[in-house]
């Protein structure tokens, strides 16, 4: 198989052997981020489709996720670092009940490499933990990720909780994840939250939103 197809297959098949060598070869012609966005994420998309249609079982999805994570970790040192921090601080979490963290960790990498300090508190985080971290670290913004449809409901509850605690004006909130839509965030979620709440389709939109918010 040609290199790009081979790399994509590695994600789909959850095949780690030889991954680094293929990534090294890809790095000779393309930047790390292009490899992630144009090849590896394509592979994850296929995994999602196979899983969604019942053609792939969960343990194999997990293996694919592990390959994806290994590849991103391997590529991270090769990414261009535009800035050394100091543009602002964001607390990042995957919401309560949700374990998906590949997207959140990509957002972490992109923001960290572009001048933001990221306090990544992990997966399955209840709103109390998110707010505690934001308070403790003096965050300028809060980012929540979640891929399950259920997580979009949790996000709404989280915003309602922030509103009822009277902290809506303290932190702008960035939301992302596959089950969210711009319309849901801008119509439904803004209705329960007086503060700023923004939808980010991908990690780059997350970065441009932060740049706008912190300007
Ligand atoms: Co799960 N899973 N999964 N899964 N999984 C999905 C999300 C699903 C759509 C698959 C499907 O059915 N087609 C489906 C959800 C269905 C729904 O809710 N309607 C699903 C399901 C059902 C489940 C389980 C319930 C399965 C089960 O147990 N029966 C279970 C849930 C467990 C739980 O959370 N409690 C489960 C488990 C898993 C694994 C553990 C096996 C694994 C996750 C491993 C890990 O993350 N460490 C996994 C995976 C890998 C997926 C799919 C296949 C791929 C997700 C992924 O990593 N994509 C996924 C299919 C899909 O998404 N279509 C699926 C790549 C990643 C880069 O994309 O996270 O969307 P994403 O991030 C994007 C943007 O969304 C955005 O930026 C990124 C790109 O730049 N973004 C942000 C994300 N967060 C952001 C935050 C921001 C800004 C942008 O600012 C704060």
List the helices and strands and how they pair.
Blueprint: H1 3-13, H2 19-27, H3 32-52, H4 58-75, E1 83-94, H5 102-112, E2 114-120, H6 127-136, E3 141-145, H7 149-164, E4 173-176, H8 182-192, E5 197-199, H9 203-214
Parallel strand pairs: 1-2, 1-3, 3-4, 4-5
The structure holds CO-5-methoxybenzimidazolylcobamide.
CO-5-methoxybenzimidazolylcobamide is lined by residues 41, 44, 47-48, 51-52, 58, 61-62, 65, 92, 97-104, 106-107, 143-145, 147-149, 174, 176-179, 200, 202-203, 206.
Domain B12-binding N-terminal: 1-87
Protein name: Methionine synthase
Family: Belongs to the vitamin-B12 dependent methionine synthase family.
Q: How does the helix and strand content classify structurally? A: alpha/beta
State which percent range the strand residues make up. 5-15%
Helix content: 55-70%
**Mean pLDDT value:** 96
C-alpha-based Rg, rounded: 18 Å
Apparent shape: globular
In this entry the ligands are: CO-5-methoxybenzimidazolylcobamide
Q: What is the oligomeric state here?
A: single chain
What distance lies between the first and last C-alpha atoms, to the nearest angstrom?
Answer: 46 Å
Structure description:
Residues 1-87 form the B12-binding N-terminal domain. Residues 87-215 form the B12-binding domain. Belongs to the vitamin-B12 dependent methionine synthase family. The protein is an alpha/beta fold. It has helices at 3-13, 19-27, 32-52, 58-75, 102-112, 127-136, 149-164, 182-192, 203-214; strands spanning 83-94, 114-120, 141-145, 173-176, 197-199. It has a five-stranded parallel β-sheet with strand order 2-1-3-4-5, sandwiched between helices. The longest helix has 21 residues, at 32-52. The termini are far apart. Bound molecules: CO-5-methoxybenzimidazolylcobamide (B1M). CO-5-methoxybenzimidazolylcobamide is lined by residues 41, 44, 47-48, 51-52, 58, 61-62, 65, 92, 97-104, 106-107, 143-145, 147-149, 174, 176-179, 200, 202-203, 206.
């Amino acid at each position: 198989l040609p290199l790009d197809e081979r790399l994509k297959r590695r994600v789909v098949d959850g095949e780690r052997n030889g991954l680094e060598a293929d990534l090294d070869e890809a790095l000779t012609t393309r930047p790390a981020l292009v490899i992630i966005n144009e090849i590896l994420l394509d592979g994850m998309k296929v995994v999602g489709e196979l899983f969604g249609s019942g053609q792939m079982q969960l343990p194999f999805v997990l293996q694919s996720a592990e390959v994806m994570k290994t590849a991103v970790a391997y590529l991270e040192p090769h990414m261009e670092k535009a800035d050394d921090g100091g543009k602002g601080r964001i607390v990042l979490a995957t919401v309560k009940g949700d374990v998906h963290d590949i997207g959140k960790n990509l957002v972490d990498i992109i923001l960290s490499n572009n001048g933001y300090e990221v306090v990544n508190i992990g997966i399955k985080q209840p709103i109390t933990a998110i707010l505690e971290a934001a308070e403790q670290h003096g965050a300028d913004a809060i980012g929540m990720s979640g891929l399950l449809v259920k997580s979009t409901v949790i996000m709404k509850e989280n915003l309602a909780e922030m509103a009822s605690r009277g902290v809506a004006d303290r932190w702008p909130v960035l939301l992302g994840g596959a089950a969210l839509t711009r319309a849901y965030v801008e119509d439904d979620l803004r209705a329960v939250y007086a503060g700023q709440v923004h939808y980010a389709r991908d990690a780059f939109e997350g970065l441009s939103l932060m740049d706008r918010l912190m300007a």
